[in-house]
Automatic annotation (TrEMBL):
Pfam families: MaoC_dehydratas (PF01575). It comes from Actinomadura syzygii. InterPro entries: HotDog_dom_sf, MaoC-like_dom. Signal peptide: none annotated. Residues 17-108 form the MaoC-like domain. It comes from the Bacteria. The lineage of its organism: Bacteria, Bacillati, Actinomycetota, Actinomycetes, Streptosporangiales. This is MaoC-like domain-containing protein. Belongs to the enoyl-CoA hydratase/isomerase family.
């Protein structure tokens, strides 16, 4: 079921999403996004370069933020913009918790802005905003 523009209010909270940060998730999504940087798949080289382990790439984080918001908004939602900033790395063995809230509504185009935050055991991994276009009362 898709969320309708008329049913959304500024301040509405999205339900949190726990993302277990497995080594497989980190490595597989880096390779799937064609990011072959060794810090995303080779633990010893990641340590050599100053990291404690491999860590998630930005393309995976961007995809998870998209999934989080569209999972709330529904299949009819259209993502219009994603702006994110990375902070603490996502390392294997941790969990990232995504949270969000409606920060703005724009009646022209039925656009809703969602403030998103993803936090792991170290601190904020990602912060940003996602703008989605929602269905209207008429189903359009």
């Amino acid at each position: 079921m898709s969320r309708r523009f008329e049913d959304v209010a500024i301040g509405d909270e999205l339900p949190p999403l726990n993302v277990p940060l497995t080594r497989t998730l980190i490595v597989a999504t880096a390779i799937a996004s064609r990011d072959y940087q060794d810090v995303h798949h080779d633990p010893s080289l990641a340590v050599e370069r100053g990291s404690k382990d491999v860590f998630m790439n930005i393309l995976t984080t961007n995809g998870l933020v998209d999934r989080y918001v569209t999972g709330w908004a529904g299949p009819a939602a259209v993502v219009k913009a994603i702006k994110i900033r990375l902070g603490a790395p996502n390392y294997p063995g941790d969990t990232m918790v995504l949270t969000g809230s409606v920060s703005a509504k724009h009646a022209d185009g039925r656009r809703v802005e969602i403030a998103v935050r993803g936090v792991n055991g170290i601190g904020p991994h990602v912060t940003g905003t996602v703008v989605v276009q929602l269905e209207g009362e008429d189903g359009a």
